[in-house]
Amino acid sequence: MTRPPAHLPLALLFTGLLAACSQTPAPSTDEALPPGSPYANGASYPWSDRLEAPVADPYAAGRDYPWTSPTASSVLDAQGLNSGVNYLSDLPWTSASNFWGPVARDRSNGEQDVNDGHTLTLGGQTFAKGLGVHADSTIKYALNAQCSTFSASIGIDDEVGKLGRASFQVLGDGKVLATSAELTGTDSAKALSVNVSGVKELTLNVLKGATTYYDHADWADAKVTCQALEPSGTVYVSDLAYTSATNGWGPVEIDRSNGEQKQFDGRPLTVNGDVFAKGLGVHSGSAITYGLGGACQAFVSGIAIDDETQGRGTVMFQVYGDGRKLFESPTLGGNFGTPLNRVAVDLTGVQQLRLVVTDAGDGKSFDHADWVDAKLACTPAGTSGATDPAFGTNGHANVGSVDSVVEPGNSVVLLGKDFSVKRLSSAGTVSAAGAVSVPGGTASAIARQANGNLVAVGQANNMVVVVRYLPTLQPDPSFGTGGVKVMQYGVMVNDVPAASSARDVTVQADGKVVLVGTSTESYLDYDVPGSTLDYLIARLNVDGLPDPTFGQDGKFTLSSSSYTDCLPKELDDLMTAVAVQADGRIVAAGNSDCVGGYVPTVLRLTADGKLDPTFSGDGIAFASPQGDNGYGDFTRALLVQPDGKIVIGGATQRFQTTAFIGRLTAAGEPDGGLVFQIADNFYDVGSVYSLARQNDGKIVFGALSPNLRHLGRLNADLTLDTSFGGLGTGYLYLDTAVTSVNIDPVGRIVASGTTDTVRVLP
């Protein structure tokens, strides 16, 4: 016998049984209801959840709207039978309303109280999972384009016998996706499956028939199946399905601020009055997880409190990779006028990314946080700017240096700050190491001789240090003392000690060594001798002795007072980079610190160490992107193209906040350039530190920047090559500042810095 309705009084039970036996439909009007019916006199017990109207301070009102998303399968899962399957009864809705008591989880609707329903039963078939409702009913879930399929068995629950009459409706983002026929208590369970791909908000409606009497409806076995695909290319995270998410106040909002507890109630993402089209709006207590599968190289985003809080709220942003904290912001408040903070994180090899916002330990009131313009760079394997998986771990050797040089067999020799050396094999593993003792020494640069020997330079105790290593990386005993030569190129003036140091080194085709740096020289100030630091260019023979055929006793020095308006006592001159042209002429780049205003200078010397008059008329060219006397310009890198043109790189503006790359013709005349902002904020340092040229004429640069834009590439015309690095910007984001860039014999880019060496496909 059919089980009678659970909430019918005894008198009505008999009526219901008779109706069941005679197939008579349930009463359709109040007049037809038997005495004692719970529906008599228009009785109802309407219920709703999370539909409260906003108030000025919902936190003070004691409100709380935590939210959890479905869980999606991803590239990280073993793809079991239940992977990515989420029962709706296990998830929080964003809002719900019901005609008779609360929506029941894994139970029938029952009466007006919580948990007073029965096992979900349709046509004698029971279900352990599902939602029990009463028409009219509406339940909404935030899917945020995370899921592909919604499925359920639908019908009128057996607890009302053959009474009840309702239809079921599924909407996606307000659009009707499916509507059932009107079902009654005489119908068995009906299977329903709906494609919800791309749907951000899922709405489940149960609509009454002629009346709401006994319309106990079941969404039995209701579930969504969700899958997060591996990202590819440059993608905004707001366009990418996450694997899971939690949020402290309503659902995570896509391309909108957090707003209130409902979905789509946020506003345009706004920080300091600037509106952003893309990003995530969250509330403290949020954690959003993405499955990357090791396919991405970098995550970049702006981070801030949204303007909708009107200056209230404090949060901290965190980025995790495979459970390891990769970034944590300082405590950020909703202060108008504060520059937008930005984060850039190296994700090479990371399988799972998690974005977290905490309340900074002071409670969650008004903690509406934005990840604005949040993007992933996921360069497909084998494309330009992708790290080389055949090198180290996902392209990273995790061994740093102050300078490096590639060898014919695609190995790389790294120079440590302490004059130690390591060789990385073509596979990115350490295959050899060597060291020398240089008390008080600091290494700066390394170069390779044709016979495989390596020469490193630097300084110790205000003297130039030159070290030569054999191909085995052991010190060359035939060079200096135990492979080390210490030389003083400066002169002592009165009581001022002599001083000199080397910053860069190169090797000529004949094996002679050319180094550049600075040395103390004397000058007269009203007939009183003084000491100043001048440009230094020196050359050593293969045996390490000064080359007497070069300059004066093997060195060339120059004070920038000879071509600027500055007095010698106001100057500190320093050469930072050197290269030798195919014809033997020497090009060096450096800077003159004229009372804090750096003047970047390029010198070209003849092979015998004299200024070359065919270069800019006197062998001296200015390289400032701001003109002849750019304030704050500082040159750090140099290369000579096959056509004789000279490319330099460094920084400009006060405190070197803007990067520049400039080019001179072979005659020393300006030939274009690029001034560009590597750092996101103007007051942050962003400088080019190294340059290398590919065979196709493109120029790769290594840089220092607080946002990890540490490797980039220019086209031959000195415009940023937006095909490089995966973000459409011309940059590759790396954890280490890149101080040395090389192109190996097969054209791959090898970039090294203080903590890592990376090999990148061209």
Radius of gyration computed on alpha carbons: 36 Å
Sheet having the most strands: 7 strands, antiparallel
C-alpha geometry: elongated
Distance between the termini: 77 Å
Number of helices: 1
The portion of residues assigned to helices is under 10%
- The fraction of residues assigned to DSSP E strands is 35-45%
Spans of at least 5 consecutive residues with low confidence: 1-25
**Beta-strand segment tally:** 57
What would the average pLDDT be, to the nearest integer?
87
Structural class category: mainly beta
Structure overview:
The longest helix has 13 residues, at 10-22. The strands form 13 sheets. Strands 1, 4, 9, 11, 12, 13 and 15 form a 7-stranded antiparallel sheet that branches. Strands 2, 18, 23, 25, 26, 27 and 29 form a 7-stranded antiparallel sheet that branches. Strands 3, 5, 8, 10, 14 and 16 form a 6-stranded antiparallel sheet that branches. Among the domains are: 85-226, Sandwich (Jelly Rolls), CATH 2.60.120; 233-378, Jelly Rolls; 490-642. The N and C termini lie far apart (77 Å). 2% of the residues lie in helices and 44% in strands. Residues 1-25 have low confidence and may be disordered. It is an all-beta fold.
Features of this protein?
about 750 residues, 1 helix, elongated, disordered N terminus
Question: TL;DR of this structure?
Answer:
With 762 residues, this protein is mainly beta.
